[in-house]
Amino acid sequence: MTEDPTMPHTRDPFAPALHSANVWLRHVADAMATDDRVFAYRATRAWLHTVRDRLEPHAAAHLAAQLPDLLRGAFFEGWVPGRTPKSSDVNAMLAEFAGAAGVTDDEAVGLLWIVTDAFRELCSPGLLEHLFARLPAALNRILLGASPGPNDEETVEDRLTNLADRLQVLSDAVSVLARGLEFRPDIEPDSTRTAFAAQEAHRMLLAEPTGM
């Protein structure tokens, strides 16, 4: 059968795979607000390997099934299932991603969740949230953009709530101590009552976790 020279692309068996990979790559590049497709692919490949190596093998395979053929090949490149999942240390994950993507560790924090956000729109709804729920909370929050950095594993709302709770404990302790120290002019100070109040305030503060 003679090939029709006017339709060269329709007979290219790799054309559909290339098109699908380009659609995904363009989506990631748009999310990163860059026209540099080489950088977008480098960040995408770094994300794929970083995520893959921190998932259980069956979860990694589940994610791979969602990928276009060419990106699936990149996903499995160099994969050693027996060595996964890797360390759950956030700093190690950021350093690995940063090195592969060619960015700093600080830039890696934002770039990770940008790529995640792009992939979230391309994969089945809720897939990444479902897979990442199996990860340690610190990694989950970094990948989903809920934590601003590796040393801050709480959301801003969590931190404000904890701070309010700690301030309330401090206020209560001060009130207890103040009541124990107060006395009326017509009544002699009670050293026992004062000591008890000081001990009670001290007990309340000791019960409060450190780090305030």
CATH class of the largest domain: Mainly Alpha
Q: Domain count, please report it.
A: 2
Count of helix runs: 10
Tell me the distance between the termini: 78 Å
String of helices and strands: HHHHHHHHHH
**Biggest sheet details:** none
The rounded Rg comes to 28 Å
Tell me the fraction of residues in β-strands, as a range.
under 5%
Based on helices, strands and strand pairing, what is the structural class? mainly alpha
Tell me the name of the CATH homologous superfamily of the largest domain. Answer: Uncharacterized conserved protein DUF2267
Q: Level of helix content?
A: 55-70%
The multimeric state of the shown protein is: single chain
Stated plainly, the CATH topology of the largest domain is called: Globin-like
Arithmetic mean pLDDT: 80
Uncertain parts = 149-154, 208-212
Which terms summarize this structure?
elongated, Globin-like, mainly alpha, 212 residues
Question: What does the secondary structure layout of this molecule look like, with pairings?
Answer:
Layout: H1 15-31, H2 37-52, H3 57-64, H4 69-76, H5 90-101, H6 105-122, H7 127-132, H8 137-143, H9 156-181, H10 191-207
